[in-house]
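Predict the holo structure. Ligand: flavin mononucleotide.
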Amino acid sequence: MVNIEEITNVTEYEELAKQRLPKMAFDYYASGAEDQWTLKENRTAFERIRFRPRILVDVTNVDMTTTVLGFKISMPIMVAPTAFQRMAHPEGELATARAVSSHGTIMTLSSWATSSVEEVASTGPGIRFFQLYVYKDRNVVAQLVRRAEKAGFKAIALTVDTPRLGRRESDIKNRFVLPGHLTLKNFDGLDLGKMDKSQDSGLATYVAGQIDRSLSWKDVKWLKTITSLPILVKGVITAEDAHIAVEAGAAGIIVSNHGARQLDYVPATISALEEVVQAAAGRVPVFLDGGVRRGTDALKALALGAAGVFIGRPVVFSLAVHGETGVRKVLQMLRDEFEIAMALAGCTKVSEINRSHVETDIDRIRIAARL
Ligand SMILES: Cc1cc2nc3c(=O)[nH]c(=O)nc-3n(C[C@H](O)[C@H](O)[C@H](O)COP(=O)(O)O)c2cc1C
């Protein structure tokens, strides 16, 4: 077992998790869809963005706190929903919940968690969002939303990019199925907690059977009739959809390509962010997930208009290696990196981070066109 003190960045956890986890589990966590072009692009697009730091600013105190949907959090880095966390560690989502609340930030619990909303709530206080997949059976959805509300979850992140499951080829090859001792805990009582083996990815087969492919914007309005919780629309990557999301009453937008696990060859989320921010025009906050592995990535996203970012894989990989302590470590590393990045860019508050702090390829083209 590697000594936790020796780990210096978030990315190191991927290789360590690979050594520790059964192949089927690691592949499920790591893979993207088909050619995995977008998976790579989610990272390389961050690498193409450069900073324009401001110097000689007094950075004795750097305040990373911010407010999301009215909740004050310690930094604009939050946790995205990732399914089946007990496949990484026996304490699964409970360990994540404890780690995230110890850092004073927000955890989003997946519909497909291997711990129920009530179990996660029982870990103690914390600001938590519930990610929703819409099942064909709307009674199931209504019940689940009510349970999340009762358990104290503060918002619904409605995932809108998964009418079918993207083709993740290693899951197809591995005939991925949830290990026999685990269930989709939120659905246990509804007889939908088990995933059967199939000639395909077992998850793809489950989705094809249960998830509502007909989901459309009118369902966002329906969802608003069954809950008073704010709804974040997760999976918007165009200005067109950002406009509709605001009109449909979304309280916020998450620019996400599902960690590159759905439609391959969509842009990196950091490349799509700015058009969504412009379309939202300050009416609702815009968040981003996908490829965030450094504090500098968070700073780039905020400079391009995001109100905060979420991380997915780093949580499951660190959970696999060091459990709750690993997730705490990931959040600590990102916090430390973000603080230094803010200081070196000359920002003492999150509200000071703005578009002038970064330069993108588009800026270069615009400047060249003016010459
Ligand atoms: C293993 C894994 C499981 C995921 N499960 C869900 C899920 O249940 N619901 C959902 O909306 N998104 C899910 N996602 C997508 C994440 O919420 C998020 O969009 C993505 O992981 C962010 O990219 P990153 O992993 O590069 O940080 C999952 C992603 C991964 C990697």
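The domain at 4-370 is CATH 3.20.20.70 (TIM Barrel). The mean pLDDT is 97.
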